[in-house]
Protein backbone atom coordinates (compact mmCIF):
# COMPACT_ATOMS: atom_id res chain seq x y z
CA UNK A 1 0.00 0.00 0.00
CA UNK A 2 1.35 3.39 -0.99
CA UNK A 3 1.97 5.75 1.91
CA UNK A 4 0.88 9.36 1.76
CA UNK A 5 3.54 11.81 2.97
CA UNK A 6 1.10 13.12 5.59
CA UNK A 7 -0.10 9.68 6.64
CA UNK A 8 1.22 9.95 10.22
CA UNK A 9 -0.72 13.17 10.74
CA UNK A 10 -3.80 11.66 9.08
CA UNK A 11 -3.61 8.69 11.46
CA UNK A 12 -3.43 11.06 14.45
CA UNK A 13 -6.49 12.90 13.14
CA UNK A 14 -8.29 9.59 12.49
CA UNK A 15 -7.62 8.47 16.07
CA UNK A 16 -9.01 11.74 17.43
CA UNK A 17 -12.12 11.68 15.23
CA UNK A 18 -12.50 7.92 15.57
CA UNK A 19 -12.31 8.17 19.36
CA UNK A 20 -15.25 10.58 19.36
CA UNK A 21 -17.10 8.36 16.87
CA UNK A 22 -16.81 5.18 18.95
CA UNK A 23 -17.85 7.05 22.08
CA UNK A 24 -20.96 8.46 20.37
CA UNK A 25 -21.82 5.01 18.98
CA UNK A 26 -21.72 3.65 22.52
CA UNK A 27 -18.72 1.38 21.94
CA UNK A 28 -16.89 2.93 24.92
CA UNK A 29 -14.05 5.38 25.23
CA UNK A 30 -10.29 5.30 25.49
CA UNK A 31 -8.29 5.67 28.67
CA UNK A 32 -5.06 7.66 28.89
CA UNK A 33 -3.15 4.41 29.33
CA UNK A 34 -4.52 2.69 26.21
CA UNK A 35 -1.82 1.90 23.67
CA UNK A 36 -1.66 3.28 20.16
CA UNK A 37 -2.06 -0.25 18.79
CA UNK A 38 -5.23 -0.81 20.82
CA UNK A 39 -6.77 2.48 19.64
CA UNK A 40 -5.97 1.76 15.99
CA UNK A 41 -7.40 -1.75 16.14
CA UNK A 42 -10.51 -0.68 18.08
CA UNK A 43 -11.40 2.17 15.74
CA UNK A 44 -10.62 0.05 12.67
CA UNK A 45 -12.91 -2.74 13.87
CA UNK A 46 -15.70 -0.28 14.78
CA UNK A 47 -15.56 1.28 11.30
CA UNK A 48 -15.58 -2.15 9.66
CA UNK A 49 -18.51 -3.23 11.85
CA UNK A 50 -20.47 -0.12 10.81
CA UNK A 51 -19.48 -0.75 7.17
CA UNK A 52 -17.73 2.62 6.86
CA UNK A 53 -14.52 1.02 5.59
CA UNK A 54 -13.80 -2.20 3.74
CA UNK A 55 -12.08 -4.82 5.91
CA UNK A 56 -8.59 -6.00 5.16
CA UNK A 57 -8.06 -9.59 4.08
CA UNK A 58 -7.24 -11.80 7.09
CA UNK A 59 -3.65 -12.31 5.99
CA UNK A 60 -3.17 -8.53 5.61
CA UNK A 61 -4.35 -7.51 9.08
CA UNK A 62 -1.55 -5.62 10.81
CA UNK A 63 -1.24 -2.31 12.64
CA UNK A 64 0.45 -0.51 9.70
CA UNK A 65 -2.26 -1.71 7.29
CA UNK A 66 -5.04 -0.70 9.72
CA UNK A 67 -3.37 2.71 10.13
CA UNK A 68 -3.32 3.08 6.36
CA UNK A 69 -7.05 2.26 6.20
CA UNK A 70 -7.77 4.83 8.92
CA UNK A 71 -5.72 7.45 7.07
CA UNK A 72 -7.69 6.81 3.88
CA UNK A 73 -10.97 6.98 5.82
CA UNK A 74 -10.21 10.31 7.50
CA UNK A 75 -8.88 11.75 4.25
CA UNK A 76 -12.31 11.18 2.69
CA UNK A 77 -13.97 12.90 5.67
CA UNK A 78 -11.90 16.08 5.53
CA UNK A 79 -12.75 19.05 3.29
CA UNK A 80 -10.73 19.31 0.07
CA UNK A 81 -8.92 22.44 1.28
CA UNK A 82 -7.78 20.90 4.61
CA UNK A 83 -4.00 21.31 5.19
CA UNK A 84 -3.50 17.54 5.59
CA UNK A 85 -4.89 17.02 2.10
CA UNK A 86 -3.31 19.99 0.36
CA UNK A 87 0.07 19.31 2.01
CA UNK A 88 0.49 22.83 3.40
From TrEMBL:
Pfam families: DUF5062. It comes from the Bacteria. This is DUF5062 domain-containing protein. It comes from Pseudohalioglobus lutimaris.
Amino acid sequence: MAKNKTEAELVKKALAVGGVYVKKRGYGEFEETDSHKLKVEYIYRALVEDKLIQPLAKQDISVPNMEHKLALWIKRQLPADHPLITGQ
